[in-house]
């Protein structure tokens, strides 16, 4: 049986110096999801946002992965093609969405404890994975946020 070699967990995505600041314009007001309110100035010169600063809390412990869930995580806000921002420095707790190495591949699931056992949950209609007692779960990190693409 040929075993495929998997890379070591990405504990470092590169020197922090490679993260360049990319300031993007940001609306000075919020965007209403119902009826819009009258707007004043849309953009001011000091309304800038660096997405690295907003989305990545710990750059040396962060890696990115594209979601390929087959719809199994939509109840948790993760869709196929989403970009997941995964932080390895977060201590895993029940209720976290995690990236785990499971049976030779990576999967994204919601981690819970039930009756002293680890359970990896998915959306309704998908059976949860109850981790056997004799299996050590290899958690690669906690999904801190995800970017959902609309087009």
Total discrete domains: 1
Q: Would you identify the CATH H-level superfamily? A: Umud Fragment, subunit A
Uncertain segments = 11-19
Oligomeric state of the chains in view: single chain
Instruction: Using the alpha-carbon principal axes, give the shape.
Output: elongated
Radius of gyration: 19 Å
Class based on secondary structure composition and strand pairing: mainly beta
Q: Gap between N and C termini, in Å?
A: 42 Å
Please describe the biggest sheet, giving its number of strands, its sense, and whether it closes into a barrel.
7 strands, antiparallel
Structural overview:
This protein is mainly beta. The protein has one domain: Umud Fragment, subunit A. It contains one helix and nine strands. It has one helix at 51-55; strands at residues 23-25, 48-50, 62-66, 83-87, 97-102, 105-114, 117-121, 129-130, 138-147. The strands form two sheets. Strands 3-4-9-5-6-7-8 form a seven-stranded antiparallel β-sheet, with no helix packed on it. The longest helix has 5 residues, at 51-55. Mean pLDDT is 80; it is low at 11-19.
